[in-house]
């Protein structure tokens, strides 16, 4: 190995310093090159596809209507590709909302991203769904709390803030009752912005349990957007947080209904 050629390079501290130096150089080179990210989000009721090149949003197609994601996602990608004359072989990576969210939606998004990644030989970048939703309210001085309706009296949620334009995690994404997340926010004691498809479901409950000032994001930023997934994806890519298409798995956070029922049957049989 290269560190065996010189005596001082056998020192593990030297090797670590050299590794960090190489990593910083790689990150710097990634930042300097033109970076094109294709992003998909089908984690909730919304289906969204976007292409971002460096600091430019080339195209975004978002639909929040009564159609399944299996019907919409690929046609939306085709439309964007045609309108922007996009050669998919030129993208650097595919960012996908990795969960939590709708089990069916996550599977469709994951399968689509993996299929593209394998066909194009491109890496995937899994973006936490609630982080991508929170990124819609970029650089606010308030806390941001996405809430997605998870059914069974729970929401998929997390608590975020921005420091110097960077998204910071105060409470990582979780599946809890809306009362529990409200208690966490009340304890933090700072104004918060709610957004996500759980807002219309739990608006009345929030009015009853919130003790601190709060508001709701407007229509143009209160749902999933693939452009947010793409921008976060570019940041993750620069940081070396990509994975192969084969490695990618959605983060469901909890068991599906079928898995829960099977587990309950197994426990009953053991009893």
Description:
The chain contains 8 helices and 10 strands. With about 270 residues, it is an alpha/beta fold. It has a single domain (about 30-250), classed as 2-Layer Sandwich (Nucleotidyltransferase, domain 5), CATH 3.30.420. It has a 5-stranded mixed β-sheet, sandwiched between helices. A 5-stranded mixed β-sheet has the order 8-7-6-9-10. Helix 6 (about 200-210) links the parallel strand 9 (about 190-195) and strand 10. Helix 5 packs across helix 6. The protein is globular, with a radius of gyration of 21 Å. It starts with 11 loop residues before the first helix and ends with a helix. Residues about 1-25 have low confidence and may be disordered.
Shape: globular
Strand order, largest beta sheet? 3-2-1-4-5
Task: Tell me the name of the CATH homologous superfamily.
Answer: ATPase, nucleotide binding domain
Structural class: alpha/beta
Quickly count the domains: 1
CATH topology-level name = Nucleotidyltransferase, domain 5
Please render the helix and strand layout as text.
Elements: H1 12-32, E1 36-41, E2 47-53, E3 56-63, H2 69-84, E4 93-99, H3 103-120, E5 124-128, H4 129-134, E6 143-149, E7 155-163, E8 166-176, H5 178-188, E9 192-195, H6 199-209, E10 214-216, H7 226-238, H8 257-270
Parallel strand pairs: 1-4, 4-5, 6-9, 9-10
Antiparallel strand pairs: 1-2, 2-3, 6-7, 7-8
